[in-house]
Design brief:
This protein is of the alpha/beta class. 44% of the residues lie in helices and 16% in strands. Helix 2 runs antiparallel to helix 10 and helix 4 packs across helix 5. The longest helix has 35 residues. The protein is globular. The relative contact order is 0.17. Bound molecules: D-malate. The site of D-malate has 13 residues, from strand 10. D-malate binds next to strand 10.
């Protein structure tokens, strides 16, 4: 108690130096595309707590889960225009605004949490952060790691691409992901994330893909029966800040924000490793989902989907950008 009384005034007076020109405490708004409980929420709350603690309460963050502040793509526009402070969204929903980010969503480039960490936390991640500031007016502060996207559907076990025949699959409004499904022989239905649960519930679409943690957080088990244990895209969810907001902060405050982002990223990685397996088990044991192994170790899925890589060389900044990413992951050039 005594320690608290001593430390808090010091922390508060130190923090008041950070928000130059702002005598009053501030509350920032953070949009989340997902419901409470998944990796986005975990990253968002960790970041918010760190920020509050390190500014001695001068900055607090209000979280708005479940797409309350608009679709994930809308939140990029709003942050870019300075109408929203922060948003956590899936990487595939930032690619339309900053196409070079697409190198991280090309099918089967990232195949594990380690790969995701290597690309996001290395020089490629730094370059993409600069590119999103330039292209989209938002800065990536942190990453949530959500795991491989798994295909779910309500109709039947899907083990190979031919099993998709006749199914309507929702995909994000992302050219790379649309093309991957076309390579597997189906015409997917591009829908905003905020409309996905209802579309599944009403049978407008039969399936979708997202990581186990997201399937659980969004309660997709209520409307989906089968999960294919596939890994065509590894889902990462950047926490972005409006660049105009970031530039309005004092250098000390910018440093606090960047450091809180780095620490929240590390905790998100640990969260994925510590929770994914038990959530997968819960989907089966408690919610009755059936997990289906992709046929032949996913080989046919991989061969068909990676055919689309050359279509996107121009948008990601050239084939050399993909080769750079593959080299960072210890793999052969495309
Ligand atoms: C999407 O499918 O649009 C996103 O991956 C959803 C998400 O943000 O979790």
């Amino acid at each position: 108690m005594r320690l608290y009384k001593l430390v808090m005034p010091l922390a508060v007076s130190a923090a008041s130096l950070f928000l130059s020109g702002h005598a009053m405490a501030e509350t920032w708004k953070m949009a989340l595309g997902d419901a409470a409980g998944g990796t986005q929420y975990e990253l968002g709350t960790t970041f918010a707590n760190l920020l509050e603690e390190r500014t001695g309460g001068e900055v607090t963050v209000d979280l708005f889960p479940n797409g309350q502040l608009g679709s994930e793509q809308d939140t990029v526009n709003n942050a870019s225009m300075g109408l929203l402070d922060l948003s956590v969204l899936a990487i595939n929903n930032i690619t339309p605004f900053s196409p070079t980010v697409g190198v991280m969503t090309l099918p089967y480039v990232i195949q594990s949490p380690e790969d995701a960490k290597t690309l996001t936390q290395g020089s490629i991640g730094e370059e993409l952060t600069e590119n999103t500031i330039r292209d989209a007016g938002v800065r990536i502060l942190a990453w949530a790691y959500s795991g491989c996207r798994r295909l779910t559907n309500s109709a039947r076990p899907v083990a190979e691409p031919a099993d998709l025949d006749g199914l309507v699959i929702r995909v994000p409004k992302n050219e790379i992901m649309i093309s991957a499904y076309q390579a597997w022989g189906v015409n997917p239905n591009p829908l905003a994330w905020s409309e996905t649960f209802t579309a599944l519930q009403q049978g407008v679409v039969d399936g979708q893909d997202n990581p186990y943690i997201t399937i659980d957080a969004m309660k997709f088990y209520e409307v989906q029966n089968y999960v294919t244990d596939s890994c065509y895209v590894f889902s990462m969810e950047p926490l972005i800040i409006s660049e105009s907001k970031f530039q309005s902060l004092s250098p000390e405050m910018q440093e606090i924000v960047l450091e809180a982002g780095k620490e929240a990223t590390q905790r998100s990685y640990d969260y994925l490793l510590n929770t994914e397996a038990s959530i997968k088990e819960k989907l089966v044991e408690e919610h009755g989902m059936e997990i289906v192994a992709p046929a032949n170790d996913e080989q046919q899925w991989i061969e068909m989907a990676t055919q689309i890589w050359p279509q996107f060389y121009d948008s990601i900044g050239g084939k050399e950008k993909l080769d750079e990413a593959l080299a960072a992951l210890g793999r052969a050039p495309a």
